[in-house]
Design brief:
6-stranded antiparallel β-barrel, disordered N terminus, 12% helix, mainly beta, disordered C terminus, Thrombin, subunit H
């Protein structure tokens, strides 16, 4: 499969919860993020092309509010090659406010690891 990522994606070293805001339920933990997408680890398989309103709770060192929310669509869902009880799920961010996008930049700067980089 040809690699189509244009933006380098960096692994997140802080385990942030990803919430389905519509159901108000945790669906996974953030693995990496950019302004255009994210990858999370989940105990649940999620259907590809499903749209969500996602919420990620933040900390005061990266945000001036408790959480960010944005629209996202699943792009892929695969069994984790190391832990078959976990799914790796990729999302495309389809709608995010400018303020929340700035917070994403702060999350990337504060918690991302340059050593574990991926192309997005």
């Amino acid at each position: 499969m040809t690699e189509r990522r244009r933006i380098q994606r960096r692994s997140i070293s802080y385990y942030m919860r990803v919430i389905d805001a519509g159901e108000n339920q945790m669906i996974g933990h953030l693995a990496d993020i950019t302004l255009t997408g994210l990858r999370m680890d989940s105990q649940k398989q999620i259907k590809v092309s499903k749209e969500f309103q996602l919420r990620i709770y933040t900390t005061s060192d990266v945000a001036d509010k408790d959480y960010i929310e944005f629209g996202a669509r699943t792009k892929w869902c695969n069994v984790d090659p190391v832990d078959p009880g976990v799914y790796d799920i990729g999302f495309e961010i389809i709608k995010i406010s400018p303020h929340d996008a700035e917070i994403v930049k702060h999350i990337m700067d504060k918690y991302s690891s340059h050593e574990n980089s991926f192309m997005f």
